[in-house]
Design a protein that fits this description.
6-stranded antiparallel beta barrel, 5-stranded antiparallel β-sheet, 6 helices, single chain, 450 residues, mainly beta, elongated
Length: 450
């Protein structure tokens, strides 16, 4: 039998990673490289480092899950504790409020197929039905549970077309949305039975069986419906005051039917501490998003080619070092490329132009800065150009386009040692990103444990 890593285990690993991201003992940077490589092994990592252009400190992090924006006409799936591959068991609405799908209704007039959702769940509807802390029903007969609302900062930093943020709030907050979520977490009821799954509807039932729940909790109640001798739906019961009977205190539950038959029903248990206790666990997040912005030339801390140059890969670098000493690099951004100081320059080296010295040493231009005095030629090297040494004060270099040349008076090291630190992640972009000195990139890196 194959082994498996539980969702809780993935969350624990990611939570340790998040704690490291937030600790004073580790510094995390987004790293940008012009390397054109799809390799992820040590060779690919070395290629990334060889052509690393600059780094920018990480500014935010959050657990994320796939973005399921509520859409009318979509069939959403009721939460199932026996299906870790579920996707449409929660939604985010137009107000950035997030809900768990507790029960999907079925159409009695059409073979009891699952119905599409037609009414957008909202916190206001939850309040009008009973309470934001409890399961509520919309007029299309869906049952929902309100989990949390995104703050404006969370929305702008971590919500994308593909992902939305999720977090557990550690304490009461002055931020309205966070304080509301904290209150919902505190009111969470442990050991609820969320719904009943029909693994097999069985055959031969002549009247509706009563469902008895044998377990260590109390208060859960569900009602079955039969059609043509089979159990076709099971609905959560209510106490008559719009309080859905999920019960509490269940760690286990066995379902007993008052009529003998071959149906197989299963109690779907919520998270041990309750649905609202930790939305990260409830929504089964196994991904964490890391976010930062690169603005212009970061006040001169990084090199931006004029008119443009590009990067093709984005990585995550932990604890890089300074180049001149072995001390940690701690600035908000830094250059990773060497540059030549050129004397007697003739013409301008073009971006990505190869240049060669009489010794046979070759490099690739990132940017020829003709404003500085003397001229600066920022360059990269890789396994294609080779790594034969240039000789400062001795080598003249000529561009392959035969329009530029110059003499190397000095080879100046960058502020960041690009071969230092731990390279934890590389993303090969589908298309290279061109940068200018008046441009901002909003970078979001998603670490996925699958």
């Amino acid at each position: 039998m194959p082994s498996s890593i539980t969702t809780v285990s993935k969350k624990t690993v990611l939570d340790l990673f998040r704690q490291d991201l937030e600790s004073d003992d580790a510094a995390y940077y987004a790293a940008f490289s012009s390397a054109d490589s799809s390799e992820s092994g040590l060779f690919g990592q070395n290629q990334f480092r060889n052509e690393m252009n600059f780094i920018k400190v990480v500014s935010g992090k959050s657990f994320v899950v796939p973005n399921n924006t509520w859409t009318s006409g979509t069939v959403y799936k009721q939460y199932d504790d026996n299906d870790d591959d579920q996707t449409l068991f929660y939604v985010i609405n137009s107000l950035n409020e997030v809900f768990l799908c507790v029960e999907t209704p079925r159409d009695a007039d059409n073979g009891y197929v699952e119905l599409a959702s037609e009414v957008e769940p909202t916190a206001a509807l939850a309040t009008s039905y009973n309470s934001t802390t409890k399961t509520f029903k919309t007029s299309d007969r869906y049952l929902w549970r309100y989990l949390y609302k995104l703050t404006g900062l969370a929305t702008s930093s971590f919500k994308t077309l593909d992902y939305m943020p999720v977090q557990k709030i550690a304490a009461a907050s002055s931020v309205v949305e966070l304080n509301q979520q904290f209150s919902l977490q505190e009111a969470s009821v442990p050991g609820q039975i969320i719904n009943i799954a029909i693994d097999s509807g069985g055959t031969g039932y002549t009247f509706t069986p009563r469902i008895t729940i044998n377990g260590n909790g109390t208060g859960a109640s569900f009602v079955a419906t039969i059609e043509d001798g089979s159990i076709v739906s099971v609905t959560a019961d209510s106490d008559g005051n719009r309080n859905i009977s999920h019960g509490s205190g269940y760690n286990f539950a066995e379902l007993e039917l008052s009529v003998e038959g071959d149906a197989s029903l299963r109690a779907v248990m919520g998270p041990i501490d309750g649905v609202n206790a930790d939305p990260v666990e409830t929504l089964r997040s196994n991904q964490i998003m890391i976010q930062t912005k690169v603005e212009d030339d970061e006040s001169g801390a990084i090199v931006v080619a004029d008119p443009v140059n590009d990067f093709k890969q984005v990585g995550l670098l932990r604890n890089p070092k300074k180049n001149t000493t072995d001390s940690d690099f701690t600035a908000f951004a830094g250059n990773c490329m060497n540059y030549f100081e050129l004397t007697d320059p003739n013409g301008t080296f073009a971006a990505d132009e190869l240049f060669t010295a009489p010794s046979g040493a070759t490099g690739k231009t990132y940017w020829h800065d003709t404003v500085s005095s003397p001229d600066r030629l920022y360059y990269t090297r890789n396994h294609t150009t080779g790594f034969k040494s240039f000789e400062a004060g001795a080598d003249d270099i000529d561009g392959e386009l035969n329009t530029a040349s110059g003499s190397i008076s000095a080879d100046v090291a960058p502020t960041v040692n690009r071969y230092s630190g731990q390279l934890l992640y590389i993303n090969n972009l589908d298309n290279s990103i061109d940068r200018t000195s008046t441009q901002t990139e909003d970078i979001k890196i998603v670490i996925d444990l699958g």
